[in-house]
Amino acid sequence: MKALMIEDEKKLAAAMQYLFKENGVDLETAFDGETGYEKALNNRYDVIISDVMLPKKNGFEVLADLRGDGVETPVIMLTALGTVPDKIKGLKTGADDYLTKPFDSDELLARIFALTRRAGGAGQNEISFGDLTLDCVSGELKKGDESVKLNFKEKELLKTLFAAKGTLVLKDALIDKVWGYDSDAGDNSLEAYVSFLRKKLRYLKSCVGVKNYQKTGYRCEILPETYAGGNGND
Question: Taking the model in full, what pTM does it have?
Fold first, then answer.
C-alpha cells in the first residue's frame, strides 16, 4: 500500500513513516499544502492523510482542489480542529474520515486499512467478469496483456456491476454505493460515468457490455462476438 501524509510537523511525519513501514505501508510525506497537492495530483496513492493547518495551502483547500481535479483517492483529515462544524466541513469537502489530534497511531492505521478495504471491495483485491479483471485497489482494468486505469468512481461503479454477476443493479443502489447515501448526485452523474466506462471497454475491445434498463438500472452482460468491444447500449 502507498500513502501520502501532508503534515508540517516533521517529527510526527517521520514517526509515522517508521510506523507505517513496520506495517507494510510505503508512506511519502509533504510538509506544506502546495507540495502535498502537487504530489497527490501527479502520483497514485491508496490513501492520503492530511492535516488541516498547513503552510501555503490549508488541508481543506488541498482537498477541495483535488476533488475538483477529479482525484478520488480516499482522504483522512488529521487535525487539532476537532469541533463538529470542522468535521462537517471536512466531510462535505470530500474527506472520507476524520481523526482528531492527539491520536493513537494504532487507531490511525486501523482506520487506513478499513478505508482502503472498503475502497478495494472489503478485502477482495480483484474481481472478474467475462474477459476482464478489475484490480479493486489500483483501479487497473485488464484484458489479457492490455489494461486501462479507472478513476475511483469508475472503479466503484464497475466493481458493483461485476459483483452483481450479470443481474440488474438499480440506479439508486449504484448512486448510493458510488457517491454515498447523502450525495445529491442523480441520474445524469450516473449516466456520465457509465459512458466513461463504455469508452474504456471499447478501448480494451472487451466482450463485456453495460446494459441500460430505462428508468431502472444497469447490468453487465457478455456481448455476442460480433459486438465485442461495444458498450451494450448506445
Answer: 0.51
Residue 121 is predicted with a pLDDT of: 43
Q: Which residue has the cell 463504455?
A: 198
CB 136 within 8 A of CB 155: yes
Strand partners for 148? 141
CB hemisphere CA count around 191 (13 angstroms): 10
Nearest to 127 by CA among 98, 165, 94: 165
**Cα(54)–Cα(45) distance, rounded to whole angstroms?**
20
pLDDT at residue 123 tops 60: no
> 190: number of CA atoms within 13 Å, CB side?
28
Set of cell numbers at residue 223: 456481448
Hey, CA dihedral for 108, 112, 114, 115, is it positive or negative?
positive
What's the per-residue H, E or C state across the chain? CEEEEECCCHHHHHHHHHHHHHCCCEEEEECCHHHHHHHHHHCCCCEEEECCCCCCCCHHHHHHHHHHCCCCCCEEEEECCCCHHHHHHHHHHCCCEEEECCCCHHHHHHHHHHHHHHHCCCCCCEEEECCEEEECCCCEEEECCEEEECCHHHHHHHHHHHHCCCCCEEHHHHHHHHHCCCCCCCHHHHHHHHHHHHHHHHHHCCCEEEEEECCCEEEEEECCHHHCCCCCCC
| Cβ within 8 Å of residue 161, ≥6 positions away | 129, 169, 174, 210, 218, 219, 220
